[in-house]
Amino acid sequence: MRKLPKLLVISNLDSWHAEAFYPQNNLRNHKEYWELYMKRHPNLCLDYNQSKTETALMVASTQKLVWMDISSNPQQETHKSGILFLPKNPSDSLLSTLFLLKDCLQELAFLELVYNIIEKDGTYRYQSMIGISQKGKKSTDVIDLFYEKYYSKESHPIKQKIS
Amino acid sequence: MKMIDFMTKTEYMPSNQEKQDIKMALILPDGTILLADKSHDDKPMRNYGVTGPRKTVEVHVDYVRILCEHFFRDDQELLEYANQENFYAVIMHWIQQGIVLFNNSTTYEGPTFILHGKHGQLLIPDDIITEEQIESLSSLQPFIDYFRDIEVKKFTTQEPNIHAATEFCSGNEAIPTYLKEKVGHAKTS
Fold first, then answer.
1. In DSSP terms, which residues pair with A125 in a beta bridge?
2. Predicted pLDDT of residue A163
3. In the 8-state DSSP scheme, what is residue A67?
4. Which residue range forms the structural domain that includes residue B97?
5. Closest Cα to residue B9, out of B48, B42, B45?
6. Domain contains A1
7. 3 state DSSP class of B118
8. Would you call A49 and B88 a contact, using CB atoms and an 8 Å cutoff?
9. Based on CB atoms within 10 Å of each CB, which residue in B44, B46, B154, B177 is the most buried?
10. How far, in Å, CA of B71 to CA of B60, rounded?
11. Which residues of A touch B (CB under 8 A)?
């Protein structure tokens, strides 16, 4: 399994702009990784009342794609789990990046793909598709399913480039 | 409705303190509740007849391994996921079997925890939940009242892939809100 970042944030407007935070022994939980991210982005403020998922939803709402490793045992090297949070209206270049990420994530045991994030009165709602690697299926198949469901195969130029 | 401590396989009679320290709970399709509180943390795994990479009960997957060994011994697929420490595959396997799940997902300790409280997840196989499970959900309420923030995930399991709709509620709102919505739907359909 390739070493996966604990957090990865990619801009929807410039998918070459990616910030990865790899596991560090001196950081105990996701909140401490998010603190590092917020230090680089003073326009954002970490709300300590929010869970790690809500923080990821908040960052995704600022036109970012967010990857978060949620493996239950931090020392675990195999059977890793994670969530990809998509911003609203993902750009073509971000969708291409999503397919590139698929290769990196192909050994994941569990992948949740979060989309249609709605923020109202300080709380969030979202929809998601879940993929599990089992019975010959790969967890990353949800990326294809998501694409097929929401983006036309024929009309979307990025799909043709990818395939 | 039966309430069983899945760590000891005995009837669960919690004190108020234990109600505040729930680790995980399952509501089976017949309405039986299997649950455990955090009083088992740091106890030897062998006390529960289970071996694993850690000698003591430390993380969620340790509880899951014991739960699987105690109540799902015939489900080889599930045991394999548990042995791989593949926590979310175990959870999704349960959801696909129509099991409702509550999970204490709080990871903070020390001052952060004291200031900001507990976080949890309520995972509901919405399209296949039974009347017995809906009745048992109310019995879970005293255990989750203390949570500051709960991620309520309603799953649809009949499509080729698993879909979920998620929203966040406080501990005292999560179950009443779901029940109100569910009963409302039942009345109109």
1. A118, B167
2. 46
3. E
4. 3-188
5. B48
6. no
7. strand
8. no
9. B154
10. 16
11. 28-31, 48-54, 70-73, 76, 78-79, 81, 109-110, 112, 114, 123-134, 141-142, 145
CB A154 within 8 A of CB A148: no
Cα separation, B45 vs A54, in Å, equals 33
Domain count, chain B: 1
Entry field: residues in chain A: 163
Please give the average pLDDT of every successive group of 10 residues along chain A, which has 163 residues.
Answer: 86 88 88 92 84 92 94 73 93 88 89 93 91 86 87 56 49
The angle, 0 to 180 degrees and rounded to 10, between the axes of the packed helices A30-40 and A52-60 is 30
Average pLDDT, chain A: 86
How many structural domains comprise chain A? 1
The tally of CA atoms less than 13 A away on the side-chain side of residue B187 is: 6
Contact (CB, 8 A) for A1 and A71? no
Q: How far is CA A43 from the centre of its chain?
A: 21
- What is the share, in percent, of chain B residues with pLDDT greater than 90? 63
Residues B189 and B184: their CA atoms lie apart, in Å, by 9
Give me the residue label for tokens 């036309």: A152
Query: Which tokens is A157 given?
Result: 């130029």
Which of A11, A42, A36, A1 shows the shortest CA–CA distance to A21?
A36
